[in-house]
Automatic annotation (TrEMBL):
Record PANTHER family: GTP CYCLOHYDROLASE II-RELATED (PTHR21327), GTP CYCLOHYDROLASE-2 (PTHR21327:SF29)
UniProt KW keywords: GTP-binding, Hydrolase, Nucleotide-binding, Riboflavin biosynthesis
Protein name: GTP cyclohydrolase II
Catalytic activity: GTP + 4 H2O = 2,5-diamino-6-hydroxy-4-(5-phosphoribosylamino)-pyrimidine + formate + 2 phosphate + 3 H(+)
Length: 405
């Protein structure tokens, strides 16, 4: 992991041994078996506390100075659980000693850049465009799953110095559709070249007409955090897989089907006329990583609920953060600067609304669209059936303020 940026693993930021400040009270909260690495990290914290420069710490960007931390690796990576536990402890120390600085957490959004986009035909017949993002907070590949043809990434469409038309098409910065022999990223010959170079570097003017007529309604947005167990390994401990499927279904249904579904369900079904985005954040296990999540599952089998298990492992109940999602939505043209309609957020978690809107309301949530579990909606005929998921949903309601109607 030697190529990680210095902030990716906050326990091991390079430090000068010369730092010594008189904040000895910190040591009262320390684990007496601290390792040298821990000491070097504590120098960092002392330095923060004494110099009052908090979020200016070179090794840790401002947006990481929070009780939340992002694990250094996603599944398949090598996570040292002892280090993670230390990080959690240190996150606690940091929170206690710098609590007056916490509001600065979200003082600005991270920088994000869409590196590549590709069309993905799906098993349901709908098409989506998968956007892969890099950012200046962590080294993970966060994703945006975009439904509809009107939502485009500014950073992707921006012209890069020295690139050829082929380069642009390979990284997905093209209008219309790709086909064998196509030579221009800007002009889709099949459509008689309706777009032009006027689009360079800014909002894509070639698609303005359909965009504006479709934006009579705010786009549907779902912020989804990676859940390997629930999405890939068939887990019935949580409903993440079902929620991801349902969000994609709502965003990809043709309008006529939507109306039909709405009449069948005798409940409002949100229209997807303005397109939809699922921002897929790589923060497994509410941000604690897969290894720690599996330990939490064992604690749950020993009698803890999902919140207690995280706390027993010295992690925050919820270590996720959403600044990256806000930044990605702004890049996709759904921010307040370019989208007067706001967004409709698919969530049961009211805290998520404020988190997604960002520090200066860079994104405006016009409406919250609830995600009622399929099993509840269908009277138990469909959806996940397990005692574990019932307990999980119950804890979300009683301890995490979720609204499940
Ligand atoms: Zn899950």
């Amino acid at each position: 992991m030697a190529n990680l940026p210095s902030h990716a693993s906050p326990s091991f930021g390079a430090q000068s041994p010369a730092t010594s400040h008189n904040v000895d009270e910190l040591s009262l909260t320390l684990n007496p078996t601290s390792t040298p690495a821990l000491h070097s990290r504590l120098d960092d914290i002392r330095d923060d506390a004494a110099s009052d420069r908090g979020d200016m710490t070179p090794a840790v960007p401002a947006s990481l100075l929070s009780p939340s931390f992002t694990p250094p690796a996603t599944p398949g990576g090598t996570i040292n659980t002892a280090q993670l536990l230390q990080q959690a402890q240190l996150a606690g120390v940091r929170t206690d000693t710098t609590h007056t600085k916490r509001p600065k957490l979200l003082s600005c959004l991270p920088d994000v850049e869409c590196i590549v986009r590709a069309r993905i035909p799906t098993t349901t017949g709908a098409e989506m465009f998968l956007h892969l993002y890099h950012n200046d907070l962590d080294n993970k590949e966060h994703l945006a799953i975009v439904f509809g043809n009107t939502i485009r990434s500014r950073s992707l469409d921006k012209v890069r110095p020295g690139e050829t038309e082929m380069d642009r098409m390979i990284r997905g910065a093209y209008m219309g559709k790709l086909r064998p022999g196509r030579v221009s990223s800007w002009t889709d010959d099949e459509k008689n070249g309706e777009s032009s170079n006027a689009e360079v570097g800014g909002a894509v003017s070639g698609s303005q007409t359909p965009l504006q007529s479709n934006l009579n309604e705010a786009p549907l947005v779902r912020i989804h955090s990676e859940c390997y167990t629930g999405e890939t390994a068939w887990s019935a401990r949580c409903d993440c897989g079902e929620q991801l499927d349902e969000a994609a279904r709502l965003m990809s249904l043709p309008m006529e089907t939507l109306n039909e579904v709405a009449s069948q369900q005798s409940m409002p079904v949100p229209s997807n006329a303005a397109g939809g985005v699922i921002v897929y954040l790589r923060q497994e296990g509410r941000g604690i990583g897969l290894g720690e999540k599996l330990k939490a599952y064992n604690l749950q089998d020993l009698g803890s609920d999902t919140v207690e298990a995280n706390l027993l492992l010295r992690h925050p109940a919820d270590a996720r953060s959403y600044g990256l999602a806000t930044a990605i939505l702004v890049d996709l043209g759904l921010g307040a600067d370019s989208n007067p309609h706001g967004i409709r957020l698919l969530t049961n978690n009211p805290d998520k609304i404020q988190a997604v809107e960002g520090p200066n309301r860079e994104v405006v949530v016009k409406e919250r669209v609830p995600m009622v579990p399929l099993a509840w909606r269908s009277g138990g005929k469909m959806g996940i059936k397990s005692s574990e998921v019932e307990g999980y949903l119950q804890t979300k309601i009683s301890k995490m303020g979720h609204l499940l109607q």
